[in-house]
Structures are given as C-alpha cells and as structure tokens.
Write a structure and sequence with these properties.
Layout: E1 3-6, E2 13-16, H1 28-39, H2 49-56
Antiparallel strand pairs: 1-2
C-alpha cells in the first residue's frame, strides 16, 4: 500500500514512493514555488525572540 500526501503548494495528491521525484511536492513547479517563498522570507520557522535578540549581536551586519 502506498501512502498519499497532499502537495504543500497546490494540494494535489502525491504518492509517497521513490518514483515520486519531487515528493512531497507534485511537480518541480510546486517545489520551486515553495523554495521561492522561503527565499522571499514568506515562510519562517518560529523561534525565541529573546534568544534571537541575544545572539543577533554576534552576527555581522549586512550593508543595505
């Protein structure tokens, strides 16, 4: 029995098997849309604001 998941981008069903090259995405297009959203900072992993503030001084500043 093959497990089926929903594509995180478009919701299409995706069979979770080795032949599904883009899993969990249904196709390369959906994979690239998701990658673009991460690059544009539309997605974020929640963090601890206090910890972020404490360690942000350790990072070099970027020129604007």
């Amino acid at each position: 029995m093959t497990t089926t998941v929903q594509c995180p981008t478009c919701g299409a069903p995706v069979e979770w098997k080795a032949e599904s090259a883009y899993r969990p995405f249904c196709c390369e297009r959906c994979k690239l849309i998701d990658l673009g959203a991460w690059a544009a900072e539309e997605h974020a992993i929640p963090g601890d604001n206090l910890e972020d503030e404490l360690f942000s001084g350790d990072l070099p500043t970027r020129p604007h």
